[in-house]
Write a structure and sequence with these properties.
Elements (H helix, E strand, L loop, with lengths): L3 H5 L4 E5 L5 H9 L4 E4 L3 H8 L19 E4 L8 E6 L14 H12 L6 E4 L7 H14 L8 E4 L18 E5 L2 H14 L4 E3 L3 H32 L3 H8 L21 H11 L5 H11 L1 H15 L8 E5 L15 H10 L3 E5 L5 H8 L14 E4 L11 H5 L9 E4 L6 H6 L3 E4 L1
Parallel strand pairs: 1-2, 1-4, 2-3, 4-5, 5-6, 7-8, 9-10, 9-11, 11-12, 12-13
Antiparallel strand pairs: 6-7
Helix pairs in contact: 4-5, 7-9, 7-10, 11-12
Length: about 450
Amino acid sequence: MVDFERLRTKEDAIAVVGLGYVGLPLAVALGRHFRVIGVDVSERRVEELKRRVDRTNEVDFATVGDDVDLVFTADLADLEKARLILVAVPTPIDEFRTPDLRPVRGASTSVGRHLQPGSVVVYESTVYPGLTEEVCVPILEAESGLKCGKDFCVGYSPERINPGDKVHRLETITKVVAGQDEPTGKLLQQVYGTVVKAGTHLAANIRTAEAAKVIENTQRDLNIALMNELALIFDTMGIDTLDVLEAAGTKWNFLPFRPGLVGGHCIGVDPYYLTFKAQALGLHPHVILAGREINDTMGKFIAEATIKRLIKSDCKIMGARVGVLGLTFKENVPDLRNTRVVDVLAELEDYGVEVLVHDAEADVDEAREELGVNLRPLEDLRGLDALILAVPHNAYKAFAVKDLKSWFNDPDKALVVDVKGFFDRAELEAEAVDYWRL
């Protein structure tokens, strides 16, 4: 099987399949110590990376020097040059909220076709417990003609990349690793331990590592769901939720979660991988799905709260102009995957509202092609009846209250809906702005 010393001396290469938010930082980090081949099926993506352009903003190529031994390719045959292959492709859900395994199946097919005897294949994608061995291994065997455990081995090391986070990076987060046997687990500890200064944790087996990853985000999803349910209750009672959380937060063991839209490639997706597997086993995960139900309805709630306040100000809803700041799934990243801002947009449009969306980070073409949203320049958000700050990008910090009021059709009826409590409430209310936050 794979010899760590041959990797360390660059006699053998490592391939990273999928050069997105997870794969690219991983490939760059490994390239500082090993010979790495970065593989992606998108020729456009590969050509951009060859020009040292990263549209995800996860890698600053100005810091990537000649000491990084990394090449980019869209030629899947180059996988034959590698002995350790790390798969970092997306694992989304489909429109029915069930796991969409096409990316991981496709990657397994490609890897299998070029898999060399004695190789190790490691999956970093978020999956349900058992998927690596039950779904991926049979594909690898069928495509390669090799036998797992005899001719090649597999492992699992779940990604923990947090897009836009400049503090919690690959190198600073403990890396969970698991191999199908002891030598594979030890190899992964050596390889990942070379780049992850926080160290590694060897899980008992692959299924345990898969389960650990999927519950990390399920736990966070449920905590946010509680905050969202509290926000629904307190809004009905006329109580400001963030005021309540600020007061409760003075207790030493109160967890600092906040209400909001829950999207992205992990928190809004991973729980469905776990519940899918649980239901396949005849189990009924009530708590997890209840949390998902609450979080999935928040876009509708925000839109309805906006409509109600417009009605109270005697605004005609049909044809009302509502500006929306932010489309990405979180602040200060261009990542549009599973953004729940689209739920707000769809609900407003159902009321006949004209919605004008601006985002300081998102790619205009990607927003149009992937979400059907035409992003507008900031100066188009004028003559508004309401303004919703959906995603608090840092670029929006520079807005002055008096400038915001000039965006409205009637400045005396300016309505600002602040999903994350980003703006200064006292400052807005001092200027007689109708201000609502989740």
